[in-house]
Every structure is written in structure tokens, then in C-alpha cells.
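Most newcomers find our protein records easier to grasp once they have seen one. A record pairs a protein's sequence with a compact description of its fold. An example says more than a description, so a record of this kind follows:
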Amino acid sequence: MRLAIALVLVLLAAAAWADLETHSTGGEAQPGFDWEPAKEAVLKWAQLPDLAGEFLASQYAADYPFDARSADDFYCEDGDPIIAIEWWGDYWNPGEPPYADYFVIRFYSDVPGPPYSRPGDLRYEEECLVYAEDPDGGGYHYVQELAVPFEQEAGEIYWISIQAVHLFFAGGQWGWFECLADDYWNDEAVLVFPELGIPEWSPMTLVTGEYHELAFVLYGQVFSPVEATTWSGVKAMFR
């Protein structure tokens, strides 16, 4: 009896591990996606989503467990801090999506190649417990004001990582949408996923067999912080 139970547990575990994936098979863009930057804040960086493209694993799930992180690089031109972020993602495997419990935003320094550039030292980390998540063109659109702005230096390259936190068996897997090819900049996105044999930051071409960069938008200061609508009100005005 114990042997039979043990065998069942082994089979269930094997089936569960088989569900883990580094990327989705791609989304299906719906008509009507129309993005405009917030008018009340300074647009610092924009890599817009390819909603018919793939989304890359970037999730922590304590019940599996697994800890996948995707990251992409960007350039700071003016040295002003980042105060808010937009991004796009979707859920897959095994079923209907719930909302994520929260997201973790991380910024890293840059380690240039060879053999390839990748995130270096962790410079910033914030748990985004209150965020906007709205259906948008076949995926989900997110907006988050940072509780503490991320201070940068002009002329430096940084990496951003956005990771969903929610249970796998209750809600499946979350992925971060890749961006449009026209918005590619510098080097490709990277992934670390120890549970699938990827213990260090690795370029997406080595992980998925295809080139990917990720979709995100970065904002600087609010234009009229006293008289203008607060950033929380601006969130509803993005589209």
C-alpha cells in the first residue's frame, strides 16, 4: 500500500514538473489595442508589447516551488528617478487566470559581455501589493507607482525584472509579454530558472531557441504634482 502511494506521488510530481515552461506558445492579439503614454508624467522608456507574441516565465510560486525571473535592459539618459512602470503579461497552464497576489519589481546594474550582457548587482527591490491589472488586447496591462523612486545615474545601463507572486496549483503560470521587434534595444532579455536547470542569468536564445525582449514602460517625474491629478488617478487615463 505504501509503495502504491509513493508511486502515485512520484507520478504526480513528474506530471507537475512537466507543466513548468520557460515561455508560452504565444498570445492571440485582439482588436482595439491602443496605447498612449500618460500625459501627466515624463516618458523615460517604452518597449511596447507584441500581444500576438510569446510571454516569458517570471513568477515565484511557493507551492511548486519555483522561482523564475526574466529581465531586460534599458538606458538612463537623463539621470532622473523612475517613479512608475507599465507592463504587460498573461497567465497559462493549467487554467483560468486569477489575479496575482502581488508583483516584485527589481532593478539591477549591468554586466556587459562577453559572453553576453546580464544583470549585475541588485540596486532596488519593491513588492507591489496594490497594482492595476486590466484585460488589454488579449493579455493583461499593469500599472504601478513605485513607493520609493528608483534613483539612477545618467548614461548608465540598467536591467529591470518584474516577477508575479502567486500559487501555481491555484492559478497556473504567469509570463511577461515580449515587446515588438521595432522596440528592441541593445541585448536580448535573460532568464534565470533553477528548477528547469537554468541557475544563472541566460539569454533567451539559449533558453527558448528564439530572440526575445520584454514589454515595459518607465516614467519619470509628474509634471504638476500639486495641481495635476495624482498618479493613482492617472492610472485610469492611460488608454
